[in-house]
Amino acid sequence: MSDLTVRRLPWEFSNVDFVWNKDDPAFAITMNKVSFFAVGFEKYICQAMNDAEKLIKDSSILQECKDFRSQESIHSMAHRKHCKALIEQHPGLQAALDVSIKLYDDLYAAHDLKYHLAYVGGLESIFTPSFRLMLDNREPLFSGGDARVASLFLWHFCEEIEHRSSGVMVYDHVYGEYWYRVSRFKEFMKHVGVVIEAITDVFREVFPEIAPEHFTNYSSYKMPRIGKMRSAWGIMTAQLPWHNPVNQALPEYFGEWVTRYERGEDMTRTYGVGANAGRMHDVALAA
Ligand SMILES: [Fe+2]
Ligand SMILES: [Fe+2]
User: What is the mean pLDDT of residues 154-160?
Assistant: First the structure.
């Protein structure tokens, strides 16, 4: 039985700034790269899950696969909205969206389903330690930024943590060859790097006035060492044969986010500058 919740939130990003966090332009630009990347990557996940569904014999895994695909499809559409709002103001950014989608379409055409499920399972298994670090440090990273974009990422990171074991579960059920998946992990990460670099190249071309270091730095905020070490350890252990992402430690914010969503709060502006934390969703719609 899948325990994923499929949530559709009414995202809106009109006139959003490219540098949506003035306190930390490098972090704002890094997250923009993630938005453009997510559109291509999550479309790719949906294609792979759609093809995998035909091969799944177990009804509970089939349901997990379908809910996982629904969550990723909604993420992809939400990030596309964010990207489109930026493209409307800076038409040159369309090339960043096009290259993200093209590189993943090309990857889908070049390999078989086993490869794609291994790619998805491998990457998804490292998201919990990576995004936990971001959620634990949400105050320095997100509180100075536009609430719409900050809330988009907090929502996405929470749902990535929620479906942390879905990708590996589907791969294990359909193919289950541990060494095939783990021996290609470096190759998968290399491909992610190629997509991010292609998006960054477009950003640099469209914004020649922005200082070059803002395109390369992850953030001007230095993550606490202990948090970075815990994240690195989590990423490493995620590749071990006995590792099950479902057992990973979760950030306390995950529970808070879900509780607030379930009581009906407007989670599209829940954190950052201009947030209406605590405002109910129906009140937001009526405003
Ligand atoms: Fe996602
Ligand atoms: Fe995911």
Answer: 96
